[in-house]
Amino acid sequence: MLGRHYQITGIVQGVGFRPFVYQTAIKYHLKGDVCNSANGVIINVFGPQRSIDSFHEILQTAPPPRARIDHLSFFEVPFQNEKEFRILPSQNIETDFLPVSPDICICEACQNEILDFNNRRFHYPFTNCTNCGPRFSIIERIPYDRPNTSMKRFPMCSSCTVEYENPLDRRFHAQPVACRDCGPQLTYFRNGSDGIFGDHALIAATESIKDGEIMAIKGIGGFHLACDAMNETALKRLRGIKHRSNKPFALMAKDIPTIQKYCMVNPDERALLQSAAAPIVLLKMKVGCIIPESVAPTQNELGFMIPYTPLHILLFEMLSPEIEVLVMTSANYSEEPIVFGDSEKDRTILAQLSDGILTHNRQIVTRIDDSVTRIDQDHQRIMIRRARGYAPDPILVQRQMNQILAAGPELKNTFCLTRGNYAFISHHIGDMENAETFQAYQEEIAHYKTIFRVTPEVIACDLHPNYLSTTYAEKLSEETGLPLIRIQHHYAHIASVLAENHRFNAESAIGLAFDGTGYGTDGFIWGGEALLCNNAGFERVYHLDNFPLPGGDTAIRKPYRQALALLYANGFSWEDSLFPVSSIPDREKELLKTQLDHHLNCVDTSSMGRLFDAISSLLGICQEASYEGQAAIELENVADPDCTEYYPFEILEDKILLKSVIGNILDDLRQGIPKSVISAKFHHGVIQLCLEICVRIREAVNLNIPTVLSGGVWQNQILLGGVRDLLEKNSFNVLLPRQLPYNDGCVSFGQAVIANEIKDRMR
């Protein structure tokens, strides 16, 4: 007889881990105990050697499906003649910390219960168990126990208590467990009238949607605005209300067979839709898709998700068969944070956005948007927006990290906190362009510091002096006296992917950082960069030749200004027949010419993203962009898949020249070559350029070093698939992000790992 003590860290709270340990110990007739601590789970088992070894094997090979064991340590202890195996109250050591489970999609068992008339949870919209339900969005502090969540306001009834305390029940120690008698309840408000409660609230909301109205519906991480996706009048109203003229809306369908009526769904996409995270998945439309074009203007893809909460399932039960697809977009004005509370201010905003409000009295502690993903040509998941279902799942890093706060970028902001072997990258915060987003950013930093018990020793930020995240970091550094480390944007992009792939070390790597904007060490705006870098620093080896951005952000919103500036910088005249020339008002054209002649309010850029925008304008595809990336997305969408020709780029010393490519495009336009062919030739030209750059760098260093792709431009599937395949055919080892986005959502992680290296060298 012997005893063994275990310490397990990882995603081991809120995923049914203690009940799993209890049941496994009982199976092998072991005595002892298990409890949550602030940095994981602690287990003591006593019994025969063979039984303990069997217990150990199950721990390592068959943990609960939502658990993630990052580290398991154990040692032998003296045998104690315990009488039973128990789940003990949680320990709370103030200096300890651990990861927290993301929110989890409703499981099949709970779904069956809410649709079973004879079950006591029939039609109860807050049903959950140890395998599903809210987690991160309701946690106030650790360890993960009911008193530390927003469920503390709902004492369990006797029936729920019996389930909670029964080791054989799947609600054994399920912290958010609730039922109609003791848990949260729905309320429906309309036009300031008194509320309608319970089932009547759900009925009222569904009837409103059937009548063509827009409903604000409170979910796991905030409110959605929902309407019938087939109702053109409702769609037009929704775009007007949100001030969102063209950006695609997300859709929720009753089930996958419904999605398959409108989109292609391969096995990988089906698995992603049905995963515990239940993200939005971008899917190719079928020929003849009857979803109104106003849902996603000019797109050939739709973003679908399936119901991931009991409330969503019940909505579709009542809406079907009349309505099987809903628009489910965040309840906010464009670029503002999602509304998630029930204050008078929140109700006022929701009343302006919707015709009615379906809410509930379970507090959302952390607002969090839906995640957005896709499956690439290599059958791998691409993260586009990392939020619900994935955050705050940490990234494991190879080495012990200092406690660092990385403030992140300006657009698609995330921040990052590090401690131990973990990097906690926040959920998507958004674009830091208004006071509400900046306020949300500061609140979330404070919350993450609390739940992960991080006390920063170092602060990292972007080089850009005008970013709000930089301003925040500077102020915090001044107030605390903590060192501030400024990190170049594109180096952070590449470092992020290297660290995610456990390759951020002394070995050099080629980094192709292609995006829209990033402040360079020379004060210009970079974005078409070929870097040679490792954990000690980076060298800018090649970059797109600079061209001016007249008016800065104004040029970004008006691709025709980018196109005209590109023509000007490369010596081409503004012919009246060109699309950007015919798109600009005469007075604006005169002012723009003066701006460029005298370089007034012009910022020079080497941005690949801006080059894509300019080409989109040259081809007459997009002259004014209502959302970020619109011009480039539409350029990709028109590309002829059968065209294999390409425009060659010229390289002079460290500059990638643009004149020959522009000249070839203008020649093809004059000859009446279809824009679909020109788009394809441009894409293939960039693909060939990437190979040439990488071959040159490999030959220069005389080493076969890995190549990293990062930056928002790589969300272009033609470019990503073409470059990856071509590089691999030429014996390059291509490293890509899998857990984090290609876009700026990864930058904070890169800032953190670079700052950690610098901090260590300061010692």
TrEMBL record:
This is Carbamoyltransferase. The lineage of its organism: Bacteria, Bacillati, Chloroflexota, Anaerolineae, Anaerolineales. It comes from the Bacteria. It is an enzyme of class 6 (ligase). It catalyses: C-terminal L-cysteinyl-[HypE protein] + carbamoyl phosphate + ATP + H2O = C-terminal S-carboxamide-L-cysteinyl-[HypE protein] + AMP + phosphate + diphosphate + H(+); an acyl phosphate + H2O = a carboxylate + phosphate + H(+). Residues 3-89 form the Acylphosphatase-like domain. The active site is at R18, N36. Belongs to the carbamoyltransferase HypF family. The keyword Hydrolase applies. Keywords: Hydrolase, Ligase, Metal-binding, Transferase, Zinc, Zinc-finger. GO terms for molecular function: acylphosphatase activity; carboxyl- or carbamoyltransferase activity; double-stranded RNA binding; ligase activity; zinc ion binding.
